[in-house]
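call fold(seq) -> tokens
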Amino acid sequence: MSVAGREIEALECWRRTLNVQPNFVMALCNRAKIFADYAKSVEDNDQKALFLWMAHKEASAALAPTAIYTDARDEVNRGKSETLKEWIESVMDVKGIAALKSAHTEGHC
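ret:
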């Protein structure tokens, strides 16, 4: 669907896939790419940061030891996710945002 320009629908399909198989690499990689593409297309810096944060989260999950690879092409997806994750980390302070998120959920903000 994302190839056909229907990213919102594709995100929902991949979300449903992850409900069934939470660590499915293809779904995680595709969601990461869609979120990153959205980040590149918006001008508002807050929205851009949110989309990049989501892309980083999905790419990180695709690279985790618990990630499930079912196809030889998944290695290509893994490489793309690694590149995407590194790029996001080069353009935003992911660790700083994670610390803020952690403090907020612990009730410190």
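The chain has a mean pLDDT of 85.
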